[in-house]
Amino acid sequence: QVQLVESGGGLVQPGGSLRLSCAASRSISIYAMGWYRQAPGKQRELVATITSGGTTTYVNSVKGRFTISRDSAKNTVYLQMNSLKPEDAAVYYCNAHSAFSDYWGQGTQVTVSS
After folding, report:
1. What gap in Å lies between CA 87 and CA 23, rounded to an integer?
2. How far apart are the first and last CA of the chain?
3. What is the tens place of the pLDDT at every residue in 58-95?
4. Least C-beta-crowded within 10 Å: which of 33, 44, 76, 84?
5. Given its phi and psi angles, is residue 99 left (phi above 0), alpha (psi -120 to 50 degrees) or beta?
């Protein structure tokens, strides 16, 4: 089992930045890690992923604005979000994925509003 705890969400004005963190209860070195988001009335959407080797992918809407990274020594994954837009507002979830298991955090709320 891996427990994931997200933090770093909050209220930010359009154009602002936030850094989300996802702290794992044990080593995540074997997992591909991802950030998802879900806005009210919408399906959960994959935002960014990072493999155990450090390869990253992003949904088109966040390319150039968001950066996913991982710190294996701290068992933590980050999502740096810059130039935030109102449409980025959602609950953001952390995911740890392997061929045998999927783990989710409870989410952190991001609100983008002036």
Report:
1. 25
2. 40
3. 999 999 999 999 998 999 999 999 999 999 999 999 99
4. 44
5. alpha
Cα angle: 79, vertex 82, 83; to 5 degrees: 150
Burial 38-67 (b: 16+ CB within 10 A, else e): eeeeeeeeebbbbeeeeeeebeeebeeebb
Left (φ > 0), alpha (ψ -120 to 50) or beta: where does 8 sit? left
Q: Please, which residues have CB within 8 angstroms of residue 64's CB and are 6 or more apart in sequence?
A: none
Cα gap 31→18, rounded to integer Å = 24
| Integer Cα distance of 93 and 91 in angstroms | 7
In the numeric block, the tokens 């154009």 are attached to 15
